[in-house]
Design brief:
Strand content: 25-35%
Distance between the termini: 36 Å
Structural class: alpha+beta
Radius of gyration: 17 Å
Order of helices and strands: HEEHEEEHEEEHEHE
Largest sheet: 10 strands, mixed
């Protein structure tokens, strides 16, 4: 897939699908215009993701429970969804494949349930939400770094269509630049040669690490 925005959209939809399947909520791709789940998805994850700029509100609303709490990732910022409000806006981002590089602190791949709980606690401000289930470790790379034995930053790496997706980047005990630099180094090691894609609302740090914005998105919520 040569269109960076389309690559980012499809990789992110795949990550949403992986997360939902882990929770027993399978989504479907339908006619290729929308990924959607007919039942409510896990917290922070949308009930639908548009896959094409031509997807319509009808394409989306016909395939989800559009009642209160429904959310839609409008991947091309092109929809008008009656009864929904814009929760936030962001930009898809892309950068060429990173080269192998050293890191300021040692990074590791999360490989077991106990470490995943540590990762989640660090990522969510001390709370273990139960969102990240151990079955995810078979599908994606969840990575982190430690200082003094404590996880201080981390991220999730996905792979699809020749790209690597970067998401859930957090820095709870170090600066954001350290988290992004380490994430890029892990991507170069674990998924070599793949351009990186993702999305962010605050572009300052990722732009400093070689990313460029490639298109807008919106997330809608039904109050």
């Amino acid at each position: 897939m040569t269109d960076p925005q389309a690559a980012a959209v499809h990789d992110n939809a795949g990550w949403c699908d992986v997360m939902c399947r882990a929770h027993g909520v399978p989504g479907t791709y339908g006619d290729g215009r929308v990924w959607a789940s007919s039942v409510r998805t896990p917290v922070f994850y949308p009930d639908a993701v548009t896959l094409s700029p031509g997807a319509t509100a009808e394409d989306v609303l016909a395939r989800i429970d559009a009642g209160p709490g429904a959310s839609v990732k409008d991947s091309y910022a092109a929809l008008d969804l009656p009864g929904f409000e814009v929760l936030f806006e962001a930009q898809w981002i892309h950068r060429p494949a990173p080269r192998p590089a050293g890191t300021a602190i040692a990074w590791e791949v999360v490989g077991d349930a106990a470490t995943l709980r540590e990762w989640e606690r660090a990522a969510f401000g001390g709370e273990v939400t139960g969102l990240f289930l151990p079955t995810l470790l078979k599908e994606v790379r969840i990575v982190c770094a430690r200082i003094g034995g404590e996880i201080v930053c981390g991220s999730v790496l996905t792979a699809s269509g020749g790209v690597a997706g970067v998401s859930n980047v957090f820095a709870s005990g170090c600066d954001p630049d350290t988290a992004w630099a380490g994430t890029l180094a892990m991507a170069a090691d674990l998924l070599p040669g793949r351009p990186l894609v993702g999305y962010e609302s605050d572009l300052e740090v990722p732009l400093g690490h070689g990313f460029t914005p490639v298109g807008p998105l919106r997330v809608w919520l039904r109050p």
